[in-house]
Specification:
Length: about 375
């Protein structure tokens, strides 16, 4: 039964929970972490860790997409980002770093990003970036926005994209527009020969609608990171992640029954910063997590310690700061698998997930989604 609270006469709101509000309960059984599998599979593509990168230029270049793929995750390149617009991305990033050094103008970096993204998308540039990833042998995934999906997707598929991530702050299966023809998501997905991951969503009903479009995966959240994203301040929209993940997982279960066995994966994108957050996101029902700021500390990250989301470059309503909050540098392998010297849960992210599963007695991710949870008082 939903937990409703009265916020005023005749007006109620649902009580919802963040990942920080829940804790995992150990079971009566433990096992060796060597006997634990963190693998998952979407469509024909198998990954050894439940990691999908948040598609921001701050952490994903063609090179880092390859590195993430070789380590068992899925790197997602932004097909509308800097690698799609500028031949010399290093110079573009240098401009951004210099703007961050302007202490007298806190908006300088965002203005630089807006200017850089005002350059037109060039098919030859994004095709070359995709080619670099494809030739490495890892799975090729790119992100497009709903506004440009119909226009860009044919060229992206021709370049070798294997998984398409259709992502915006909020995505619905039913977009109403007075200007132009809205994207028919169900028809769009049906016409493609590659799996589509779509989102973000924050509730059961929208998740169910997206699943019914034929999406192979649904993204829960919009990449919320404290101090980086400002969607809650700008639009008043917030997604308490523990509740949102659990609601999407319930939609997945009901859709599985409705279709007689079609399983749609749930990806948690937001509020996942530490290894404990990863474990709790899976425990709430996620199949994988989309990591953003957590990966900015990697020495391979193109942002050189800076972090922002794609919403920072919106021409009129930016919803992300450029953050310089990374206080350490570590290579990507150590960041994901250790060994760690930092006790805050910000390195050895998936080694810690494996240990959490072992400590609670679960051998794979599907089992771990059934682990007991408590809510902090």
């Amino acid at each position: 039964m939903r937990d409703l609270v009265e916020i005023g006469m005749g007006r109620t709101a649902r009580r919802a929970y963040e990942l920080d509000d829940v804790e995992i309960i150990p079971s009566r059984r433990t096992r060796s972490s060597k006997d634990v599998s963190t693998a998952w599979q979407i469509d024909a593509y198998r990954f050894e860790i439940p990691l999908v990168t948040h598609p921001t230029d701050a952490i994903v270049s063609p090179g880092t997409a390859v590195a993430v793929g070789e380590l068992g995750g899925l790197g997602v390149l932004n097909a509308e980002g800097l690698w799609a617009r500028h031949a010399d991305v290093d110079e573009a990033l240098f401009r951004l770093v210099r703007a961050m050094e302007d202490a007298e103008d806190p908006t300088a970096a965002v203005r630089v990003l807006q200017e850089l993204h005002a350059a037109p998308i060039r098919v030859d540039l994004i095709s070359e970036a995709i080619k670099q990833i494809r030739e490495s042998g890892v799975t090729v995934a790119v992100r497009v926005s709903p506004q440009h999906a119909a226009e860009l997707t044919p060229d992206l598929l021709a370049a070798g994209v294997e998984i398409l991530v259709l992502q915006g702050t909020i995505i619905s299966a039913e977009h109403v527009s007075r200007d132009g023809e809205p994207l028919n998501l169900k028809q769009f997905i049906a016409d493609l020969d590659v799996p589509v991951i779509a989102g973000g969503v924050g509730d059961y009903r929208t998740a169910m609608h997206l699943m019914r479009t034929g999406a192979a995966g649904v993204i829960v959240g919009y990449g919320y990171t404290p101090g980086v994203t400002s969607t809650d301040a700008v639009l008043g929209i917030g997604v308490p992640m523990a509740t949102a993940i659990a609601d999407a997982a319930a939609a997945r279960r009901d859709y599985l029954d409705e279709t007689g066995g079609r399983y749609v994966h749930v990806l948690a994108d937001g509020g996942v910063l530490t290894s404990g957050d990863i474990a709790k996101a899976i425990a709430c029902g996620a199949d994988a997590v989309m990591l953003g700021e957590s990966l900015a500390a990697a020495t391979e990250a193109p942002g050189q310690g800076l972090y922002w989301t794609a919403a920072a470059a919106h021409p009129s309503v930016p919803r992300s700061h450029v953050s310089a909050g990374v206080d350490q540098e570590v290579d990507l392998r150590s960041l994901l698998f250790g060994p760690a010297a930092d006790p805050r849960g910000v390195t050895n992210l998936f080694g810690a997930l494996r240990r959490a599963m072992a400590k609670t007695g679960y051998s794979d991710l599907k089992e771990f989604q059934k682990v007991g949870l408590t809510v902090r008082g």
